[in-house]
Amino acid sequence: MINLNDPKLNDQMIQADSCYWALCNEIKLMGNTTFTLDKCQYMQVIMNDSSRFVCVMKGAQARITTVFMLRSIHCLGHGLYSKGVIYYFPSRDAVEDFSKTRFTPLINDNPCIKRLLQSTDSVFVKRVGKSFLTLKGGTATKILKGRKKDSMSVRSTPADEVIRDERDLFDDDMVQMTKDRLLDSVFKREVDLGTPTMPDFGIAKVFTLSDQKNSMIKCEGCGAYTCLVDDFPNSVKYHKSTTHVNYEPYFACIKCGKEIDPFAGEFVAKYPNREISGYHVPHLMTPHCELPLVMSRWEECQIDGSKAGAFYNSILGLPYIAAEDRLTESDVFACCGNDVMRTTISISQTAMGVDVGKAYHTVVIGEKVDDKRAKVIYLCRVKGFNAVHDIAKKYNVKSAVVDIRPYEESFNLFQKSEPYRVFGAEYKDKQREFMKTDERQGVYSLLRNQIFDKTHHWIKDGLVEIPRKCAEVDEFAKQMCNCAKVLEENEQGDRVYRYIKLGDDHYRSAMNYLWLALGDLTAWQGMAAPGFAMAGAGEWNPLTHGL
To answer: Which of 2, 81, 209, 430 is 20 to 30 A from residue 231's alpha carbon, by CA?
Structure first.
């Protein structure tokens, strides 16, 4: 029989269980509070998860940063890790702010933690036991050859566990570099945390790949299970009184309507066989959630849709993007016609957009229908400019716009050798005009936001027809949707819209270039001058003359 009062057993449990250690030592936290599992049982489950890869998609004030900081201190202080833990924040400023306002007070207020730390002088590195807890910013500090991002602070330290806090603010190149810190470790543990922003991006994308654990609450009345978020707003009902202003909201069973305890749930995995252990922790299941305030904000969202993003992200812990700010696959498939992709030699003159990549070049061939509408007749992914040349010849291409990066020399050779108008294209985030034309070099400089806007409306308004559904059209649709317009704050503090990449978007860029190439085709149809030298024959601008 186990004797819970046995000092030896108690010491063994303290060494093995970080949550038990924090409870026994009554760890003091911010705001003169003490670590407790009261209304926070979810913290124990997450702290004790020994999976190699854990992700937590959370709402506001879920105490998850506290969970993993305490777990890291415990593991290092009790000798469980020899190579240390690296806790990554989005920036160096975020590290300094966390260290000064939260980590240093945590050390000073808790003698049990102070005893474990051998050195506390550095803001960024703490010696805990015989190893180190390192706090780092995950911002890229270098751009290599125009594409790959690098950072010495990210790449310089080995570890047994890496934690990435606010995953949506990390660049994918930096994420891969943090993973490389684990290559010499036996444990190779990694954690992603964060409040989600957009679907298929950052922490939401990682959670989608996980086993997707949600808190399920069993009704004591009928035995049915309710998920506060998945069933929201139907998981909330009101104790009715004589006036609406006195209605009191409560969490209710989705089946019988009886009141349920939001803190009595158990995590249930939707896909239990997946390797990534994922938790969804919305604000609704945190101890300081005020349901009347939550429902008041929900009602405001119904009136003012601009507030929906903040509500979904912070309260429900869900990603959100307004329908008008991102294409959907349904939008793309709605543009599908009855024709299959053309495989025979084209008689009509066509235009071509090409996005250049390391693995393959993405090609879209189209022809003009009228002043506003176009038809895509062929799309593919091929290796090398020789293959692009063969496709252009087969489909009678007379105008092409091609990505000049990352192989500018290869593009220049292609541009000079082709017997039709070929212009290069590069995106710019800052310039006064939507498009600048370098006639001598044959290059368009495009404002990225505006060209994405144009193809967004091209699809939304049904002004372009694409081939009948097939495997390649499915991939085309997926990539067309892999970017979204979001409102961000720039370095000057101004709020500006910007398109964010959510995944492979090569076909989207190829469509951007096709939009321009069709305009050029209109102006120069029938003219026989080679290459971009044709540009000197007039003052064509696809913006003013249309497609």
So the answer is: 209
Specify burial of residue 379 (Cβ count, 10 A radius: 0-12, 13-18, 19+): buried
> What's the pLDDT tens digit per position in 499-519?
888 889 999 999 999 999 998
Is 458 exposed, middle or buried, given 0-12, 13-18 or 19+ CB atoms closer than 10 A?
A: buried
| Count of domains observed in the chain | 2
Residue 143 lies in a domain: yes
Residue 460 backbone phi and psi in degrees, to 5: -55, -40
In eight-state DSSP terms, residue 440 is T
The pLDDT mean for the chain works out to 87
Q: How many CA atoms are closer than 13 Å to the CA of 438, on its beta-carbon side?
A: 11
Q: Where are the beta strands (DSSP E) in 219-325?
A: 225-226, 236-239, 248-251, 266-269, 277-281
365 and 419 share one domain: yes
Coil, strand or helix: which one is 193?
strand
Give the three-state DSSP class for 71.
Answer: helix
Tell me the one-letter amino acid at 255: K
d(CA 522, CA 517): 9
Structure tokens at 126: 């703490």
Q: pTM for the complete prediction?
A: 0.78
